[in-house]
Amino acid sequence: MLAAVAGVFAGMLTLIQQFIAHGLQQLLYGVTINRLSALGSIHHPWRLLALPTGGLLLVLMARVLRRRRAPVDVVEANAMHGGRVPLSDTLTIAAQTILSNGTGASVGLEAAYAQVGGGVASLLGGWLKLRRGDLRTLVGAGAGAAVGAAFGAPLTGAFYAFEIVIGTYTPSAVAPVLAAALGAVSVTRALGTTPYLIATTSGRSFTFVDYLAYAALGLICALVGILIMRLVTFAEQRLQRWKQVSGWGPIVGGFLLIPLALASPQTLSAGHGALHLNLLIHPALSFLLIVLVLKIAASVVSLSFGFRGGLFFASLFLGALIGEIFAATLGSGSLGVRLDAGDAALVGMAALSVSIVGGPMTLAMLMLETTHDFALMGVVLAATLVSSAFTRETFGYSFSTWRLHVRGSQVRSPRDIGWMLTLTAARIMRRDWTSLDPGTSIAELRDRVPLGSVSKTVLTDGDGRYQGIVVVANAHAADLDPTAPISTIAQQLAVTLRPETSIDAILRLFDDAAADELAVVDDEGHIRGVVTEKHARRRYFEALEVQQRELFGEV
């Protein structure tokens, strides 16, 4: 019931965001709703000053907010923070995305949809003090519901939640995720929103050669997807090194987008209108190639220069262009393979989006729900699986997790790793260690610490700073000089843990150091506790068992 409520809110907020963004496009460009990218030409080029103006507003917004960290999106929140999404981060991402898309930057609104849907769900779950696993599920359900509402496709929204936000299909999450998706789509249809539909060719079948051709298209889309993701990062890094410009990036990016928009208005906004226009008229191959290059350039400039938004819908448009180019190229050759341009565009949409966004079933369901074409599903699945597998094996990231990785995050997928980051050395360390001065003689240690009383003793100087660990059994060895200081047989002098070290890093350090006990030391070198390998592994497996039980809804 709570997920259904979150879904209803997500659906309504999705419509509100669409209304604001498209209203901005009407105000600034004088076009009908959702048709900015379908313009044949820019009749009033001065209107394109909306792009740098939007960049200026983004710069001013950043100066006013003065954030010291990047806002937490729903994927990062579910992977690292147990589904907790700060309200301020949700509002910031939504405002920046709506402003970027509304002023014409080449970004989609899906980032704002998912953020607001997941943010509302997180807020509801926080008020009710839900457990970590339940909150993650609710956040995923809210984010997926918002995306489903945007396309009028509940199954697409459900699989978006499973594959891209929650990170796995779980029996315990099926009911809430589907309830949220159905609630969101129902409220948007009740308010009169038309579902996102694409007409396809009917009454045809696909041969084995067609499957091979579409699998090749999936591979091409994977290569293009990886190229786009790397280009965005490359441009971002170069801009950050240009200190005089980096602080004004969105303004500079806005000016760079103007000549691209003059060359082709299809580079503006996410590309909804241009996608439908191209599917209807099937332009010439040369035109498609030019638009593809320009749209990639516009997306890279928009994202790397500081405009906020997603690549989901831009990747659908780019994939459609690649599919039509692929079909036209095969048709003009001597291979004897003829593909329907519309079918190739739809397959390319799914294959490129899978490479960039992730979620092969999400895109397969999107194609099914927007075309109602079951015959097309086979070749769509073939292309998306090839694209997904190739991207995963050669690159290993979706666009959202790749950007987190570039920032230094450990997130590689929506899988929950936050519990490992909170299970730190400070939480599992013992504070009842035996301590001796490093200058103590071996004979004195034998008197004060009899064999069998404790296994190890920690050495600390007069200021309490760590000086190593001594194995008591080694100190009782007969061949040692009893007058020698125990510092001569100390171990693990340079290998220590910090209080904030996470459990996975602790276990790796135990393996690398071949130690069974390590000291926890603060910034000033004072010992705070001791962690044994046996205790660390037991705590890890206990926490892992709790996660497994939550995964299957047993707690």
Please describe what this structure looks like.
With 555 residues, the chain is mainly alpha-helical. It has 3 domains: 2-190, Orthogonal Bundle (Clc chloride channel); 208-406, Clc chloride channel; 418-545, CBS-domain (Roll), CATH 3.10.580. It is built from 24 helices and 5 strands. The strands form 2 sheets. It has a 3-stranded mixed sheet. Strands 4-5 form a two-stranded antiparallel ribbon. Strand 1 (435-436), helix 21 (442-448) and strand 2 (456-460) form a beta-alpha-beta unit. Helix 23 (503-513) packs antiparallel against helix 24. The radius of gyration is 29 Å and the shape is elongated.
Describe the structure concisely.
The protein has 24 helices and five strands.
What's the total count of β strands? Answer: 5
Largest sheet: 3 strands, mixed
**Can you tell me the CATH topology of the largest domain?**
Clc chloride channel
Indicate the CATH class of the largest domain.
Answer: Mainly Alpha
Q: Report the helical percentage.
A: 55-70%
N-to-C order of helices and strands: HHHHHHHHHHHHHHHHHHHHEHEEHHEEH
CATH superfamily of the largest domain: Clc chloride channel
How many domains, in number, for the residues? Answer: 3
Which helices and strands, and how do they pair?
Layout: H1 2-29, H2 50-65, H3 74-80, H4 87-102, H5 110-127, H6 132-151, H7 154-166, H8 171-190, H9 208-241, H10 243-246, H11 249-263, H12 272-281, H13 285-304, H14 312-332, H15 341-357, H16 360-371, H17 374-394, H18 399-406, H19 418-422, H20 425-428, E1 435-436, H21 442-448, E2 456-460, E3 466-471, H22 472-475, H23 503-513, E4 517-521, E5 527-532, H24 533-551
Parallel strand pairs: 1-2
Antiparallel strand pairs: 2-3, 4-5
